Amino acid sequence: METKILDGKKLAQQMQADMKNRVDRLREQGKIPGLTVILVGEDKASQVYVRNKEKQANTVGIKSEVIRLPESIGEQELLDQIELLNRDETVHGILVQLPLPKHIDEQKVLRTIHYSKDVDGFHPMNMGNFLLGNVSTLPCTPYGIMKLLEAYNISIEGKNALIIGRSNIVGKPMALMLMQKNATITIAHSRTENLKELAQQADILVAAIGRGHMITGEFIKPGAVVVDVGMNRSAEGKLIGDVDTDSVKGIASFVTPVPGGVGPMTITMLLDQTINKVETD
Ligand code: NDP
Known about the structure:
This protein has helices spanning 8-28, 44-60, 75-87, 106-112, 124-132, 140-151, 171-180, 195-199, 245-248, 262-279; strands spanning 4-5, 34-40, 63-69, 93-96, 160-164, 184-188, 204-207, 225-228, 232-233, 239-240, 254-255. By secondary structure, it is of the alpha/beta class.
């Protein structure tokens, strides 16, 4: 079987071209979408993600700003900074790059961002609305994956979907989105005993584990759609996914590459939701 690539990079470029037009229309009305990203500490991967977000936001015409804070910053100081942004009318989206240093309560920080400016969809109000099936800001990574599946006309209804990983930002919301589109879902995690057998029954497999090349061809049901969320560094320092793409080729019907699959879609949905906040204001 020929395995086709789910090209997130290409779809992201198409969507961002459209977003530029949306921002142009807003600017004509004197409305400039503003996105502020807060980066705490010196984590190398976070620095790269934040730089990409800033660069792509600017490309579509969003006014983006990065506030860089030292690792040693106190929790209250960070919360005060967020409160300032909550009151700033030129800022429509606020994003705090995760992970945060251990001495800072991540949930408290996410709760402090006003839910109307939460472009990551991590605020409990947005998470709750999403769970209830109401209109809401959505977690960007699974939202981007849904857009990618939709663009390639992947049928979801009635399919067996296995999501490996149960984090709040990827695994859990991914499962919910696939269930909302009528897939039958299974969620696996580090305590799952029969992972390979479950995987072999999955029509759609989403790997959000954080372990380089853990998922090989023998896990894959012939014809399955494989989505690789993982971003790991190999021993040589190369960016690799959770899926060993070469070994699933010829078995899967579709696979997302790393890089160029899920990553670009995540940023694109962040930009989409920032613009949407201004459009619906
Ligand atoms: P987390 O570390 O929060 O979650 C990882 C999940 O994988 C956990 O639920 C864990 O189980 C499960 N897991 C770990 N080891 C195994 C195993 N051996 N077998 C089965 N399940 C296992 O990670 P995230 O969800 O934040 O991210 C996952 C990956 O996706 C990372 O590589 C991250 O860098 C990447 N990522 C990529 C994004 C993108 O835009 N492309 C965006 C966000 C993340 P348990 O709960 O039991 O510990």
